[in-house]
């Protein structure tokens, strides 16, 4: 034992290894030292030979200094809140990298003077929605609503809202609490399933700050329902604020029931709010569009400073709006036949490796608070459920699928073609680690 202890290399000797010296440059000294200490402990305990300390430390190192890891989203949920919602386009990623150092976010290089913060992103947003007289960007859609409530109703003013739209966004956060927390008084009208324009009209008084319409983006009420048109609500003599949710700027034939910013403004909304990281496909942010005087009131409210976005967000937003279509768009538009062909090819490849794999039809979803109940036709590779955990643990890129009826489905609607090789490598590696499985008698082309 003492002999083994003596043979375990000293910390400074291990740290001098070029691989660990390089890792120290990327990860910092303390992370590398902890990995070395852990490897030394394993060697002293006899778990690894002393000459493997360096290799064990290298193997245990994280890839980056931050703990967030890229994953392949094979859940079939396009905008998955737990997986960071919209994946950024390459243009947006490059814009983020360009803005990461010192940059002219609030500075005019020609005059050498201070300039309007994020003017490029704001101009892109204004161009994308010409109906908006003014635009503003905050931290997220919840912040956009909070700012509306604070600036327009924060002094106890009333917000008139339908009982059918008092929604919980997720993770226990409820819109009514957000609005009353801002100092506004909620005037609930109508019922869960039916609210008429007369219900709203009867609640409007001199205390009314605005009428609020919230898109029920994460649930659907069907059956005996009714709600007034946006244009009817805009005609009640008080400002109408519309939260469209998913960030669709113009009508989309692929998602005909999803409300959009342009239509809401055309119908007479004074202000429209939306998220940047749902169907728009950009970074997390809250978008505000509307009447110039109202947007200016929001912009000048003291809280606006606490809700403002950073330069990285502004860079990614502008590139999302001006650059090529972001991944969310491309994945929404991929023809199902293409997904089926990809699923069949992968299933064939996995079956040749002896795995119980088949291609299946699947239903993908927008998710993340967008297009509730809308099923996007898709195709998946189906594997035994036992694959789910090793796929999530796979390196370098974890793969997250969904388990349904004892099968692990890898839905290709949310997987980019460029991610397919990593996905295949992860499945084949997981297959080698799992007990051999029997191959079910389906066609080898995966057309089961
Ligand atoms: C998603 C959503 C929100 C919350 O947006 P965040 O950007 O996550 O703050 C609010 N309202 C609606 C209708 C939504 O769909």
Describe the protein in words:
The chain has helices at 2-7, 11-15, 18-27, 29-44, 53-60, 90-99, 119-128, 141-153, 175-181, 197-203, 230-234, 261-266, 292-300, 311-322, 327-333, 336-352, 388-392, 420-433, and strands at residues 72-73, 107-108, 113-114, 134-138, 158-162, 168-170, 173-174, 185-189, 208-214, 240-245, 271-275, 286-290, 358-365, 375-384, 399-400, 402-404, 407-411. The protein is α/β, with parallel strands linked by helices and 448 residues long. It has a seven-stranded mixed β-sheet, sandwiched between helices. A hairpin with a 4-residue loop joins strand 2 (107-108) and strand 3 (113-114). Helix 4 crosses helix 5 and helix 8 packs parallel to helix 9 (175-181). The termini are far apart. Residues 441-448 have low confidence and may be disordered. Keywords: Cytoplasm, Protein biosynthesis, Pyridoxal phosphate, Selenium, Transferase. InterPro entries: PyrdxlP-dep_Trfase, PyrdxlP-dep_Trfase_major, SelA-like, SelA_trans, SelA_trans_N_dom. One of its GO terms (cellular component) is cytoplasm.
Task: Give a brief description.
The chain is an alpha/beta fold. It is built from 18 helices and 17 strands. Residues 140-142, 169, 214-215, 217, 243, 245-246, 275, 286, 369 line the site of pyridoxal-5'-phosphate.
Portion of residues in helices? Answer: 25-40%
CATH architecture of the largest domain: 3-Layer(aba) Sandwich
CATH superfamily of the largest domain: Type I PLP-dependent aspartate aminotransferase-like (Major domain)
Ligands in the model, by name, code or SMILES, are: pyridoxal-5'-phosphate
The first-level CATH class of the largest domain is given as Alpha Beta
Taking pLDDT < 50 over at least 5 consecutive residues as the criterion, the unreliable ranges are 441-448
Tally of individual helices? 18
- Total strand segments: 17
Q: Can you tell me the overall shape?
A: globular
Task: Tally the structural domains.
Answer: 3
Largest sheet: 7 strands, mixed
CATH topology of the largest domain: Aspartate Aminotransferase, domain 2
- Mean pLDDT comes to 93
């Amino acid at each position: 034992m003492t002999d083994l202890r003596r043979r375990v290399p000293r910390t400074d000797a291990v740290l001098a290894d070029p691989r660990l010296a390089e890792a120290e440059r990327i990860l910092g000294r303390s992370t590398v030292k902890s990995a070395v200490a852990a490897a030394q402990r394993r060697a002293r305990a006899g778990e690894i030979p002393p000459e493997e300390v360096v290799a064990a430390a290298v193997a245990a190192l994280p890839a980056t200094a931050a703990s967030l890891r890229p994953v392949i989203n094979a859940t079939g949920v396009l905008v998955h809140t737990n997986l960071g919602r919209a994946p950024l386009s390459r243009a947006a990623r490059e814009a983020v990298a360009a803005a990461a150092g010192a940059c002219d976010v609030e500075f005019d290089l020609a005059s050498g003077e201070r300039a309007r913060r994020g003017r490029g992103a704001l101009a892109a947003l204004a161009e994308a929605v010409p109906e908006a007289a003014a635009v503003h960007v905050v931290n997220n859609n919840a912040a956009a609503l909070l700012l509306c409530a604070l600036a327009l109703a924060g002094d106890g003013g009333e917000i008139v809202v339908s009982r059918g739209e008092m929604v919980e966004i997720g993770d226990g956060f409820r819109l009514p609490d957000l609005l009353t927390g801002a100092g506004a008084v909620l005037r609930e009208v109508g019922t869960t399933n039916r609210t008429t324009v007369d219900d709203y009209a009867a609640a409007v008084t001199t205390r009314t700050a605005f009428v609020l319409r919230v898109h029920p983006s994460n649930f659907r009420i069907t059956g005996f329902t009714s709600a007034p048109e946006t244009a009817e609500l805009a005609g009640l003599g008080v400002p109408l604020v519309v939260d469209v949710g998913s960030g669709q700027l113009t009508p989309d034939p692929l998602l005909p029931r999803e409300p959009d910013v342009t239509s809401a403004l055309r119908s007479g909304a004074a202000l429209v709010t939306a998220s940047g990281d749902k169907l728009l496909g950009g970074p997390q942010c809250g978008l505000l569009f509307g009447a110039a005087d109202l947007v200016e009131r929001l912009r000048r409210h003291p809280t606006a400073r606490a809700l403002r976005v950073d330069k990285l967000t502004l860079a990614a937003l502008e590139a999302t709006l001006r650059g090529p279509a972001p991944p969310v768009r491309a994945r929404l538009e991929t023809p199902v036949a293409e997904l089926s062909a990809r699923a069949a090819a992968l299933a064939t490849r996995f079956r040749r490796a002896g795995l119980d794999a088949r291609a299946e039809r699947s239903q993908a979803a927008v998710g993340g608070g967008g297009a509730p109940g809308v099923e996007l036709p898709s195709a998946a590779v189906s594997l035994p459920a036992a694959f789910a955990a090793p796929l999530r643990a796979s390196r370098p890129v974890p793969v997250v699928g969904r388990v349904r009826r004892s099968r692990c489905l890898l839905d290709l609607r949310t997987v980019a073609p460029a991610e397919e090789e990593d996905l295949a490598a992860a499945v084949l590696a997981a297959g080698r680690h799992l007990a051999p499985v029997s191959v079910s008698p389906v066609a080898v082309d995966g057309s089961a």
